[in-house]
């Protein structure tokens, strides 16, 4: 057997065993287990492929991605000429496969969770019943950096605040040792990554068309149609034929490719702040044929930069007077201003109780157990167990500002301890989960790497999503950080239809 085939047989079960990597106490261990049934057909196919063929396909994918311009900007990174750098997000050829029954339950849990989060955001900016019920402390809302007092009492179409949500999910053993899906994080402001989900699928269909006749893989390429339907459904009642635009900070934003991609796929205009202006209580965009009224703005610009008359006065990324038009109900913003109050990591621990409070249901998807360091007893526990925990900033993103205890040096732990003691309210802590891993094609061959999943949930007249999401993979051996800015890559996600 070819050495490449032998490695794959060990990892995927074409031989008698599968190895699943787990991180425990800072050590990456390999656990032998049988291959899961839904991987068996793929495993047998891949074991027959020469390593040289897989390597050439990987190189072909990289050339195509670079030609199309599927890159992201790395803030703070400079090339040898001192200019900002753009990088490809590495694409892995081995898909992540999820059986139909697992997806159905995950989908039910996602609909439930996003529905409750939208109810929470509306409640925050109206009657705050959840505060009066003693479930979420008022200080966690009004003291939240993402709370926008300007949104108090503002009614939005269909009471939907987060029209596009990206929910980060991991799979790990539960108390019974069985694999279970957990929500790691809610992204309700300007979640990114869906363009990579679509481009990864397109690439797999181009490189390996024969696989899609062997597997009944649910389609995802209709996502732009669902997105446009969701955006149009959010339009104010002042029009029956809404004009939708995508608002981008510009070509130097790390996700600019995605902004341009989605605008093109939906057949709508991509605009910057300088293209918009307010007149007579409405928003207009400048066109070669004169001003055209805008009804729905899919904004990829953070709250603080949307309206210089209200938020950051030096911003040139937004449109002066936008908030007044929005408050009057003459334009829809997707997502709404102030949605970040619900995806802050200090709010995350309350989501299961939100589901029970607003929906009267038990959560389908569990949270990862979380210690809120602002609480004295939790802080005491976290300080005593830093080497075993993952500690995150409540406003952090991109894998920055965090401590992965099992992978940190003693000096890093002690330095972080000082920050934690000085400002405990800025942090939460979670156990280091034994995250599931997936066979991944790396330079040394096929090896297990940790993964997560970001499904994209659309809330319009109904909550819907395509069957799939962005699987991110930590390409560094033993790493738990999947973010592209930290060296992570992506995989195509296959949801089986049967």
From TrEMBL:
Record field: transmembrane: none
Domain of life: Bacteria
SUPFAM superfamilies attached to this UniProt entry: Glutathione synthetase ATP-binding domain-like
Identification of the protein by name: Circularly permuted type 2 ATP-grasp protein
Domain Circularly permuted ATP-grasp type: 95-474
